[in-house]
Amino acid sequence: MEQKITNRKKQRLSTRWVVNIILLAIIMVGGWYVCCHYLPYLKSTSVSVNSEYRFGDGNSKHLAAARKAGIRPVEKNEDLKTNTLTKIESGDHYKVDRLKYSHAYLTPKAANLLDEIGTRFQAELKNQGLEKRRIIVTSVLRTGDDVKRLKKVNQNATANSAHQYATTFDITYVRFDRQSLMGDDVSFKQLANILGGVLKQLRNEGRCYVKYEHQQHCFHITSRK
């Protein structure tokens, strides 16, 4: 009888150890997730980029390229047809933010441009031995309905926007999605300037137009292909 009681106590102790280890693992994973995904949001309100990356391609350039390579603007959300477009989703090279005033679709060539930006950005981080991050896409294709809703909360929003042609997207320069805690720490300003450098390369290659949006904390990018 005493032997059975002793065995039961051992089993209970063993079970407790297993439960404690599981709980510790959950806490560690949760802490890692918070550090990777939420801490950046608390530190990014005053980031700016170097003057050489404050690209000033005006709305007329973006519109001309968008009209040439994009779709016909759609007024109503229910009339939006996406069969000729590429759905963009969070993956290895970029993260799509929660979109309130746009739809996650681009022309195939604009989607390729976005992927190229993310690929070059991460390659540059790796070359410098920095921790892995993803760029964050904050706005994509807008319908007329989206523009009307956006104008209610953003007076700077324009009804004549290149976003309506599925060739244009915004990438924030004040937030970057951390993928790993490995590698050297990097400031948000460094990340913003690395992104600026990537965009400068592609802009010089004739791949895109870029406008630095100070108030919206983003790069406004239109594919030229």
Summarize the structure.
Helix content is 42%, strand content 15%. The chain is an alpha+beta fold and 225 residues long.
Pick out its properties.
225 residues, alpha+beta, 6-stranded mixed β-sheet, two-stranded antiparallel ribbon, 42% helix, 15% strand, globular
How does this structure look, described?
The chain is an alpha+beta fold and 225 residues long. The chain has helices spanning 2-37, 59-69, 108-127, 144-153, 188-204; strands at 86-87, 94-96, 105-106, 133-139, 168-172, 177-178, 208-213, 218-223. Strands 2, 4, 5, 6, 7 and 8 form a six-stranded mixed sheet that branches. The mean pLDDT is 86.
Q: What share of residues are in beta strands?
A: 5-15%
Main sheet summary: 6 strands, mixed
**Unreliable residue runs:** none
Count the beta strands.
Answer: 8
**Termini Cα gap:** 82 Å
Helix count?
Answer: 5
Order of helices and strands: HHEEEHEHEEHEE
The coarse overall form would be: globular
**Overall helicity:** 40-55%
- CA radius of gyration is 23 Å
The overall pLDDT average reads 86
User: Which class of secondary structure composition applies to the elements?
Assistant: alpha+beta
